[in-house]
Amino acid sequence: MFADRAKIYIRSGKGGDGHVSFRRELYVPNGGPDGGDGGNGGDLIFVVDEGINTLADFRHIRKYCAGDGQEGGKRKCSGASGDDLIVKVPPGTIIKDAESGKVIMDMSNKKEPVVLLKGGRGGKGNRHYVTSVMQAPKYAQPGQPAQELWVQLELKVIADVGLVGFPNVGKSTFLSRVTNARPKIANYHFTTLNPNLGVVDLAEGQGFVIADIPGIIEGASEGVGLGYEFLRHIERTKVIIHMVDGASVEGRDPIADIKSINDELRKYNEEILNRPQVIAANKMDAVSGEEGEDVITLLKEEFEHSGVKVFPISAVSGQGVKELLWHVNTLLAELPDEPVEFETEYVPDRTSEISDSILVSKSEEEEGVFLVEGPKVERMLGYTNLESEKGFDFFQKFLKDNGILKQLEALGIEEGDTVKLYNLEFEYYR
Question: What's the confidence (pLDDT) of residue 351?
Answer without folding.
Answer: 47
